[in-house]
C-alpha cells in the first residue's frame, strides 16, 4: 500500500446561509487541495478555497447523481492517497442522513486519516428561519427527526409510521417532499391527528426560502397545488403555530428578490453580505478579476512606490490601488514613516476606508465620488497646484480625466500602474449558469468594466431585469451598450448601491 500523507475532512456545510458555516469548516476549506462538494452545499463557500484547489462537483438530487456514492467514496480515498488534503463538503451535518458515516468507514478501511466536522442541520435551522422553534415549553419537550427518503434497494420501508404517529412533540422530516402524499396518508392511517399543523420550508436559510403551512390532512394537496418541490424540510407539530408571531427571516425587504453582484470574487462578498442580510437571493457573478501589473509596468510601479516620499500628493482612485500600493511599499520599506510627508487624496469613502486599514488618513475627498469631482477638488479646494508633484496610483487603462485636468493645471504628475482588470471567463460560483436558467430581478454593476466583461461572457440582460448602477461612469457604459439604467446610486459607493437596490425593490 502506498504511503498515506493526505487526510480527508468530512465537513458539514450547514443549511445554506454562508454565516452558518462553522469556523472549523472554513479552515478545512482554506487548507484543501481538493474540494468535493454536494448539491445542497452553497457554492459561495468555494470562494474560501485557495487558488488552484481542485473543485469537484458530486451533487446528488433525486434520480440525478453527478457521481454515484460508491464513486464518491473511491474518489475521496484516491485523492487522499495522493498525499492531498481533501475537504468533502456536505450540506447540513455530515452524519444526519448525510451518508458521512459510510464515507468515514470507507476512509478508515483504506487506512486514510479523516476528521468529521459537524455542521448545523437543516432539521433545526430550517424551522428556525421560518419562525418555528422545534421545542417550546408551551408546546413540547421532545423532537423526532426522520427521513422521507430511504435506500431504494431495501425490500421494505424501515419507517415505523405507527411510532411516528404516536410520538409526542415535534416531528421533522428531511427529504421526501415528493413522497409527501404517501407519508402523510400512512401517518393518518396509523392514527395521526388530521388537524396537526404542518409546515414545509424550501431552500431554508437562503434568499430562495419559501414556507407553506397546512395540516396533516391538507399539506400534501397544498404542496402539489403550489408546485412545492425539494429541497424542503417538513415540520409536524403545534410549534408551527408559533410562526405567526416568530417569523423573522421572510419579512426582510428584499425577500424573494434575486440580485446579481458582478464584482471580483474577493470584493463581491461585502456587497453580497449586505444584500443577503436584507433577504435577497444573491448570485455572486464575478465578471472581472484583478491581476498585478506585469513586466515593464511592474518594474516602473515598484520604482515609483519606492520614491513615494518624494511626492507632495498621492492620489488613489480605488481600494485596489491602495492595496497594491501598500503591498509593494512594505516589500520595499520596513517603516511607515518612509512614505514621507505626502498628503493623500481618495476618490470616495471606499478608497478612504481601505487607506484607513493601513493607518493612513485622507486629506482630500470630493463630495461626488467620481474622478471628475476629484480632479475639480484639487482646483477648488487645494488652491494653486502648479509645479506640485503628485503620484496617481491607478489601474491600467483607467480614464485619463485626472491626468488631463492636473497636467492642464501645471501639476508634475507621475502615473503608477498598480494593477489591471481582466475578464473572468469561467463560472467559479455557478452563478452564470443559474442566471441563464433562472434569470434575476435586479443586476448591479460597480464599474464600467464589470458591465463590459458581463457582456463578454455572451450574456444579455432580460427585459424584466432591473439595472442598478453605482455611478455615472458605470451608467454611461450601460447606456452605450444599449441598456437603460433603472436607478443610479445617489452615493457612489457600496452602501449607496444597496440603497438603490432597496428602492428598486420597493417600486415593483
Essential attributes:
single chain; 508 residues; alpha/beta; Cobalt-precorrin-4 Transmethylase, domain 1; Methyltransferase, Cobalt-precorrin-4 Transmethylase, Domain 2; Rossmann fold; 4 domains; five-stranded parallel sheet; five-stranded mixed sheet; 18 helices; 34% helix; elongated
Distance between the termini: 63 Å
CATH secondary-structure class of the largest domain:
Alpha Beta
Percent of residues in helices? 25-40%
Strand order of the largest sheet: 3-2-6-1-7
* Strand segment count: 22
> What would the average pLDDT be, to the nearest integer?
90
Helix tally equals: 18
> Which value, in Å, is the CA radius of gyration?
27 Å
Topology:
Layout: E1 7-12, H1 23-31, E2 34-37, E3 54-57, E4 60-61, E5 64-65, H2 69-81, E6 85-90, H3 100-109, E7 114-117, H4 122-129, E8 143-147, H5 161-166, E9 170-174, H6 180-189, E10 197-202, E11 210-215, H7 219-225, E12 232-236, H8 243-246, E13 258-261, H9 265-277, E14 281-284, E15 288-292, H10 295-306, E16 313-316, H11 319-332, E17 343-346, H12 349-357, H13 371-382, E18 389-395, H14 401-408, E19 412-423, H15 431-438, E20 442-445, H16 448-456, E21 466-469, H17 472-480, E22 487-488, H18 494-507
Parallel strand pairs: 1-6, 1-7, 2-3, 2-6, 8-9, 13-14, 13-20, 16-17, 16-18, 18-19, 20-21, 21-22
Antiparallel strand pairs: 4-5, 9-12, 10-11, 10-12, 15-19
Helix pairs in contact: 2-3, 11-12, 13-14, 16-17
Amino acid at each position: 500500500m502506498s504511503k498515506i500523507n493526505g487526510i480527508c475532512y468530512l465537513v458539514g456545510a450547514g443549511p445554506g446561509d454562508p454565516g452558518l458555516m462553522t469556523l472549523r469548516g472554513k479552515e478545512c476549506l482554506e487548507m484543501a487541495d481538493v474540494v468535493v462538494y454536494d448539491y445542497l452545499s452553497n457554492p459561495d463557500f468555494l470562494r474560501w478555497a485557495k487558488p488552484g484547489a481542485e473543485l469537484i462537483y458530486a451533487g446528488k438530487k433525486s434520480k440525478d447523481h453527478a457521481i454515484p456514492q460508491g464513486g464518491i467514496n473511491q474518489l475521496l480515498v484516491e485523492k487522499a492517497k495522493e498525499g492531498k488534503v481533501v475537504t468533502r463538503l456536505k450540506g447540513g451535518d455530515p452524519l444526519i442522513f448525510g451518508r458521512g458515516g459510510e464515507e468515514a468507514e470507507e476512509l478508515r478501511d483504506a487506512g486514510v486519516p479523516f476528521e468529521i466536522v459537524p455542521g448545523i442541520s437543516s432539521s433545526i435551522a430550517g424551522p428556525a428561519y421560518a419562525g418555528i422553534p422545534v421545542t417550546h415549553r408551551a408546546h413540547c419537550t421532545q423532537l423526532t427527526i426522520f427521513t422521507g427518503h430511504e435506500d431504494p434497494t431495501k425490500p421494505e420501508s424501515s419507517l415505523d409510521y405507527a411510532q411516528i404517529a404516536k410520538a409526542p412533540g415535534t416531528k421533522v422530516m428531511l427529504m421526501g417532499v415528493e413522497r409527501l402524499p404517501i407519508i402523510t396518508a400512512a401517518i393518518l392511517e396509523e392514527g395521526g391527528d388530521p388537524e396537526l399543523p404542518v409546515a414545509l420550508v424550501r431552500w431554508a436559510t437562503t434568499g430562495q426560502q419559501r414556507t407553506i403551512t397546512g395540516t396533516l390532512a391538507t399539506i400534501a394537496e397544498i404542496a402539489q397545488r403550489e408546485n412545492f418541490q425539494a429541497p424542503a424540510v417538513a415540520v409536524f407539530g403545534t410549534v408551527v403555530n408559533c410562526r405567526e408571531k416568530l417569523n423573522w427571516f421572510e419579512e426582510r425587504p428584499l425577500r424573494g428578490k434575486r440580485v446579481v453582484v458582478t464584482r471580483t470574487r474577493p470584493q463581491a462578498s461585502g456587497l453580497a453580505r449586505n444584500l443577503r442580510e436584507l433577504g435577497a437571493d444573491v448570485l455572486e457573478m464575478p465578471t472581472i478579476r484583478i491581476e498585478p501589473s506585469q513586466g515593464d509596468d511592474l518594474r516602473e510601479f515598484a520604482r515609483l512606490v519606492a520614491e513615494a516620499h518624494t511626492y507632495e500628493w498621492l492620489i488613489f482612485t480605488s481600494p485596489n490601488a491602495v492595496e497594491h500600493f501598500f503591498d509593494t511599499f512594505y516589500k520595499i520599506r520596513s517603516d511607515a514613516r518612509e512614505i514621507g510627508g505626502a498628503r493623500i487624496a481618495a476618490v470616495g469613502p471606499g478608497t478612504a476606508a481601505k487607506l484607513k486599514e493601513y493607518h493612513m488618513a485622507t486629506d482630500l475627498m470630493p463630495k461626488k465620488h467620481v474622478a471628475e469631482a476629484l480632479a475639480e477638488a484639487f482646483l477648488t479646494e487645494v488652491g494653486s497646484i502648479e509645479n506640485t508633484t503628485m503620484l496617481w496610483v491607478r489601474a491600467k487603462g483607467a480614464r485619463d480625466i485626472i491626468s488631463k485636468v492636473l497636467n492642464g493645471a501645471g501639476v508634475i504628475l507621475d502615473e503608477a500602474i498598480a494593477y489591471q482588470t481582466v475578464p473572468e471567463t469561467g463560472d467559479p460560483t455557478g452563478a452564470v449558469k443559474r442566471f441563464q436558467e433562472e434569470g434575476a430581478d435586479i443586476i448591479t454593476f460597480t464599474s464600467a468594466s464589470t458591465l463590459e466583461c458581463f457582456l463578454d461572457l455572451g450574456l444579455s440582460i432580460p427585459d424584466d431585469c432591473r439595472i442598478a448602477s453605482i455611478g455615472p461612469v458605470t451608467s454611461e457604459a450601460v447606456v452605450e451598450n444599449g441598456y437603460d439604467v433603472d436607478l443610479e446610486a445617489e452615493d457612489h459607493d457600496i452602501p449607496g448601491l444597496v440603497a438603490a437596490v432597496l428602492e428598486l425593490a420597493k417600486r415593483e
